Amino acid sequence: MLEIVGRLNRGILSVSDGEHYVTLLLAELDAHERTLHYVNCGHNPALLFRSETGKVTRLDSSCAPIGIFSEQVCELASAGLAAGDVLVLYTDGVTEAQNDLGEEFGTDRLFSSSRARFFPVGGKPYEHYLQQCVRCFATRVGCTDDATVLVVKWQF
């Protein structure tokens, strides 16, 4: 994965001025080992909800966004997985959605709405639930940026 990040970094840097960049979280699931390997290049931290403990692990940045520096120094991180664990990946359009007062939806609201939905899980898919939460929060302003959510639940 670090080789892929390096190639992407060189490619983006070759066509940009160093002031334009890309954030990304690249992840790979090893189903045999039940491990998620990832590198987060300046992207929003993914949220890994642990089914056994109810706790959340933030998959924080391990390096700068790609396309800024000629040499990208990143660390590969890993997280063990158990059946029922849920990974939530999202773009900044979700957390930066604003209400009438200019307040952002934010990571704390995303975390709270996710926890309420996953423990226990049921009803409509999480994506629809989160979309409703963001729409209710940002009724007039709405999302002014892309708002994408990807949810992965492991059932080994």
Structural class: alpha+beta
Examine the coordinates and then state which fold CATH places here, giving the name of the CATH topology. Phosphatase 2c, domain 1
Mean pLDDT: 83
Approximate shape: flat
Structural summary, described in words:
By secondary structure, the chain is an alpha+beta fold. It has a single domain, classed as Phosphatase 2c, domain 1 (4-Layer Sandwich), CATH 3.60.40.10. Helix content is 28%, strand content 23%. It has four helices and seven strands; from the N terminus they run αββββββαααβ. Strands 4-3-6-7 form a four-stranded antiparallel sheet. The mean pLDDT is 83.
Draw up the topology in text:
Layout: H1 2-15, E1 24-30, E2 35-41, E3 46-49, E4 56-59, E5 77-80, E6 86-90, H2 92-95, H3 106-118, H4 126-137, E7 149-153
Antiparallel strand pairs: 1-2, 2-5, 3-4, 3-6, 6-7
Helix pairs in contact: 3-4
Q: Which features characterize this protein?
A:
flat; 156 residues; 28% helix; single chain; 4-stranded antiparallel beta sheet; Phosphatase 2c, domain 1; alpha+beta; 3-stranded antiparallel beta sheet
